[in-house]
Every structure is written in structure tokens, then in C-alpha cells.
Specification:
Number of helices: 10
Helix content: 25-40%
Distance between the termini: 53 Å
Strand content: 15-25%
Shape: globular
Structural class: alpha+beta
Radius of gyration: 19 Å
Strand order of the largest sheet: 6-5-4-7-8
Low-confidence stretches: none
């Protein structure tokens, strides 16, 4: 691991997390919690397997990542963030928020994984009527379906499907994310190809308040 060799908190932090891929590994572990090496590799398209192994070893030595052997029938190594590693979550959130304008348009060369939307949605979505019955929104915008659920006033995301969601959004990730973060009106997104099924009131319940009235 290279060092700036500066007596400065920022420089010392970058000595640990400033290398290429490191913060994206942290992103994956924030989203997936405990996961296998193959899960990390699948969530980091383009990374060489030996480089991923090197980065994980460096993060372990720094006390940011821990590994454990899962019991049978899984019988594989699982990786997770330590408490020190989880302290990076607000850092990741703020970098992602700052970088939001850069994803307004998607290059044809950009890869995408559905679970990546978990962090930006966590920043933007809020259940404004938490005493009402829980709701579920099904998303189809990439390699795997994703579910948004409200529970006890919190909004959570997970990979998977649900039989009878109140809303289903299907389309390009920039359209789905745009509607859910309040940056694109529902009518404009549908005109651009987004498929919408369900109750518009569900969107009004969770999308940011400044765009709480998406309309056709």
C-alpha cells in the first residue's frame, strides 16, 4: 500500500481507502452486508480477481473488513465490514450525493448492477405516513429485480421479487432512479419508455417531498 507520508487526517485516510476499487468494495459490503468473494466480484465488473484479493487483504489489515468461515452447507468465506468500516457509510453517501449529477446521462460503455441503486434510494426515500400499512415497490431496471419496502417507518431495499407489489416500475435505470428521487416527473419518464403499474399514491408517499406529486 502506497502512502502520502503526510501528517494529515485526510492523507492518512487516503493511504487506506484512496486506491482504485477500494471504496467500491466498501459500497458492495454496505449494500450486501455479509457476502461471498464471488458476490463481490460480480458486483465489481471490470476488477481483476487478483486485485480484488489484494484489496480485501489490505482492508483486513486496516481493520475495515473482516472475514469468517460460514458453516455448512454454505462452507465458504464471507466478508463483512467491521464497525470501523461501517463508519465509512456517511462518507460513501456524501460522495455518491456529490456525484449524482454525473449520472444524469448513461454512457453506452457504463455497466450497471441493480443493487447499486440501494444507496441513492436510501438517501432520497422516506415514508411520510409510517403509521399506514407497509407498502412494496417492485423495480425492474437491470440484471436482478429489486424490492423497496416500508417497515416501521423505514424504507429498505433488497434484491428479489414480491408477488403483489403496490407499484411496479420497469425501464432504464436512469428513468427509475429519476422518478424515485423526484428528479424526473412520472409523465416524462413514461414518455421516455418507463412502464408504470399500480397506485400513484404509493409514489407520493415515499418520493422526496419537493416532487411528491408525479402525474401522467
Amino acid at each position: 500500500m502506497r502512502s502520502y507520508r503526510q501528517y494529515c487526517g485526510l492523507a492518512k485516510a487516503l493511504d487506506v481507502i484512496g486506491d482504485r476499487w477500494t471504496l467500491l468494495i466498501v459500497r458492495e459490503l454496505l449494500i450486501r452486508d455479509r457476502c461471498r468473494y464471488t458476490d463481490l466480484r460480480d458486483g465489481l465488473p471490470g476488477i481483476a480477481t487478483n486485485l480484488l484479493a489484494d484489496r480485501l487483504r489490505e482492508l483486513e489489515r486496516a481493520g475495515i473488513v473482516a472475514r469468517e468461515d460460514a458453516p455448512p452447507p454454505i462452507a465458504t468465506t464471507l466478508y463483512q465490514l467491521t464497525s470501523r468500516g461501517r463508519e465509512l457509510e456517511p462518507v460513501i453517501d456524501q460522495i455518491g450525493r456529490w456525484g449524482g449529477p454525473f449520472v444524469a446521462e448513461r454512457s453506452k460503455k457504463d455497466t450497471f448492477r441493480s443493487h447499486w441503486i440501494a444507496l441513492p434510494l436510501k438517501l432520497h426515500l422516506k415514508d411520510r405516513t409510517p403509521r399506514r400499512p407497509p407498502i412494496a415497490i417492485q423495480l425492474h431496471c437491470g440484471d436482478e429485480p429489486v424490492v423497496i419496502e416500508t417497515r416501521d417507518g423505514a424504507v429498505r431495499t433488497r434484491i428479489g421479487s414480491i408477488p403483489d407489489p403496490e407499484v411496479t416500475l420497469t425501464g432504464a435505470p436512469q428513468l427509475v432512479i429519476g422518478v424515485l428521487t423526484g428528479k424526473i416527473e412520472l409523465a416524462a419518464a413514461r414518455a421516455a419508455g418507463l412502464k408504470f403499474e399500480g397506485d400513484r399514491e404509493v409514489l407520493r408517499r415515499v418520493v422526496p417531498e419537493r416532487r411528491r406529486e408525479p402525474r401522467d
